[in-house]
Amino acid sequence: MIYLDHAATSGVCPEVMEEMIPYFTKYYGNPSSVYGFSDISKKAVKKSRALLADVIGAMPEEIYFTSGGSESDNWAIQGVMTAGQKKGKHLMTSKIEHHAVERTCAFLEKNGYDVTWLDVGEDGRIRMPQLEREIRPDTRLVSVMMANNETGTIQPIAEIGRLTRSRGILLHTDAVQAFCQIPIQVNAMKVDLLSASAHKIGGPKGIGFLYIRRGVTLEPLIHGGGQERGMRAGTEFVPGIVGFAKAAQLAEKKRREQTRKKQMLRDYLIERVVRAIPYTRVNGSRRYRLPGNVNLSFQFVDGGALLRMLDMEGICASAGSACSSGQSKPSHVLTAMGVPKELAYGSLRLTLGEENTKEEMDVVVEKLTNIVGQLREYSSEYRQMISGKKEGIAPRRKGSL
Ligand SMILES: *Cc1c(COP(=O)(O)O)cnc(C)c1O
After folding, report:
1. How far is it, in rounded angstroms, from Cα 198 to Cα 178?
2. Ligand 1 center to 77 CA (angstroms)
3. What is the pLDDT of residue 92?
4. pLDDT tens across 246-289, in order?
């Protein structure tokens, strides 16, 4: 198997697993209990919180554990907006957010809040002049993701932060894809709330955090016991928290070296595919891009069929986000970037991880060339194009922006 879907999830590495196991079997005490035995769990949570805070330049008490990226996004947006209703009911987000942000904003919109949905350019980035123009006196929150899960496009968060901070507006960023992939400093970037998740960086599924800058007020999303300083109820997932911290530590230690390696493989794969397969387009900015993200569109090809055929060859890939695959709507991210429908339907996301090799890239190019060729043979539009009755809209060669 060749696994090229690291933006969907990653495996837990043995070192992380080893760190977690004792907290399932031996030190299972509830951190909220009073006896000495549960102090071991309490200390483990405390240490993990400090380690994770350090990765983004935050203070330990600004880190709140959650069940993952989705909960962190829901909490940040709903928590801020419901806490400050008198101060305003307007928030801004982009058209390319993960569904966890998009649908939370849509939910608020349905319930009497005003949402401005910012456009993105062909490169997938928001435009600062539009953001500045759309700010209103009642704007409370801007939520723009740090890096996109489909195209890997990195947003100008520090620039956004300078603007929002100067206007007294809070900034939330979904950094689930960016965390441990690119350097993040919440203070320098002037970020007020930040979402992260463990399972995208080699940690377990079902654990994440929300960074909340000291002094920011928001309502809890999960009500109940007094855990997380009364802000997020529920017995802590201690082994998960420990595993999350270990995974982040390992990922940060290897980040520079991994960035170079992934960028090299990414660019190698893109160049080879674009040279081997005509009518291919590279989606998203080439410059502001996560090191391990490849997003391509093949004209005259159905993305779903392409994924199934790659699967038969043992290659795990994605058409976009895991949540939208299986649906017959083209990706809202590619659509917002102005990718024509025909190309959005034929899109493929390949995301690299630590274990991927150049040899695997060669196999992928070979299989992809064959499969795209086969699928195009069945396409009547492709045959029309070949016989001169229809134009190819993706570039014949060199599909990059
Ligand atoms: C995966 C992902 C999420 C959701 O995180 P979970 O921990 O799976 O809930 C949110 N935002 C982005 C950008 C993601 O890639």
Report:
1. 12
2. 15
3. 98
4. 999 999 999 999 999 999 999 999 999 999 999 999 999 999 99
Residue 88 contacts by C-beta under 8 Å, 6 or more apart in sequence?
136, 137, 138, 139, 140
Distance CA 278, CA 262 (A): 24
The tokens describing 311, both together, are: 């699967």
Whether the pLDDT of residue 17 is over 60: the answer is yes
Retrieve residue 216's tokens.
């920011």
Q: Tokens representing 73?
A: 């996004």
How far apart are alpha carbons 10 and 199 in whole angstroms? 6
Q: Which two tokens stand for residue 144?
A: 């723009």
- For the Cβ of 94 lying below 6 angstroms from any atom of ligand 1, the answer is no
145 lines ligand 1 (CB under 6 A): yes
Nearest partner of 26 among 184, 275, 282, 242, judged by Cα = 242
Whether the Cβ atoms of residue 214 and residue 61 lie closer than 8 Å to each other: yes
Summarize the confidence of residues 303-321 as an average pLDDT.
91
Q: Answer for the pair 194, 175: CB distance below 8 angstroms, yes or no.
A: yes
CA of 386 to the centre of ligand 1 (A): 41
Which residue's structure tokens are 């350019």? Answer: 121
The confidence score (pLDDT) of residue 320 equals 59
Atom of ligand 1 nearest to the CA of 73: 10
Tell me the C-alpha distance between 345 and 66, whole Å. Answer: 34
Q: What percent of the chain has pLDDT above 90? A: 90
Tens digits of per-residue pLDDT, 143-174? 999 999 999 999 999 999 999 999 999 999 99
Q: Quick check: is 323 catalytic?
A: yes
Residue 351 CA to ligand 1 centre (angstroms)? 15
Q: Is 174 in the pocket of ligand 1 (CB under 6 A)?
A: yes
Please tell me the predicted confidence (pLDDT) of residue 327. Answer: 55
Q: Is 197 in the pocket of ligand 1 (CB under 6 A)?
A: yes
* Residue nearest ligand 1's atom 12 by CA: 176
- Residue owning tokens 């890239």: 361
Contact indicator for 292, 262 with CB cutoff of 8 Å: yes
CA distance 383 to 386: 5
How much is the mean pLDDT over the chain?
95
Q: Could you tell me the strand order of the sheet in which 193-197 lies? A: 63-66, 208-212, 193-197, 170-174, 139-143, 90-94, 114-118
Which atom of ligand 1 sits closest to the CA of residue 72? 9
